[in-house]
Design goal:
The chain is an alpha/beta fold and about 160 residues long. The protein has 7 helices and 6 strands, in the order αββαβαββααβαα. Helix 2 packs across helix 4.
């Protein structure tokens, strides 16, 4: 299952807590507070359940099974002196230096935009690092949902 791959990836990258946005048996899950808000709705819901103490968070879509430990670790290192880190060609996966300010920014955006907020709009309100990913590894950021998607990958 894709969720198992994502969970294993976090653990291999040295992260200790895996929280799933949604409802998947066998995992600590947080339901979306406001359904149908896309990826940022999940980020928002997870943040609302956390205490306000600063910590590093990373969010990955479960449909990115080609992510590697190196890709995740690079984001975690890159976010050190920034609010957020993501690869310039893809706003997800996303690393955050979570704190009260970031939580307040997202809360305000979600309340002002009841139809949903894009991850890019959220990121435009933060100080972001955008590490470079080589063309050789850029395919790792592709969403893979079907057998056809898998068949289009380079060898």
């Amino acid at each position: 299952r894709l969720i198992e791959h994502a969970s294993d990836l976090f653990l291999l990258a040295g992260l200790t807590d895996v929280i799933v946005s949604g409802n998947i048996g066998g995992y600590f899950c947080i339901q979306d507070i406001t359904p149908n808000q896309g990826p940022l709705g999940g980020v928002y819901s997870v943040m609302q359940h956390m205490d306000d103490s600063p910590k590093k968070l990373i969010f990955i879509p479960v449909d990115m099974p080609l992510l590697t430990v190196n890709i995740v670790s690079t984001l975690l290192r890159s976010v050190q002196d920034f609010d957020a880190a993501f690869y310039s060609n893809s706003p997800l996966p996303l690393a955050l230096n979570f704190n009260q300010n970031i939580k307040a920014i997202l809360y305000k955006l979600m309340k002002e935009n009841l139809q949903g907020v894009s991850v890019k709009v959220f990121l435009s309100n933060l100080r972001c690092a955008t590490p470079i990913i080589s063309e050789k590894h850029a395919f790792s950021l592709k969403n893979i949902n079907t057998k056809t998607d898998f068949s289009r990958l380079p060898d």
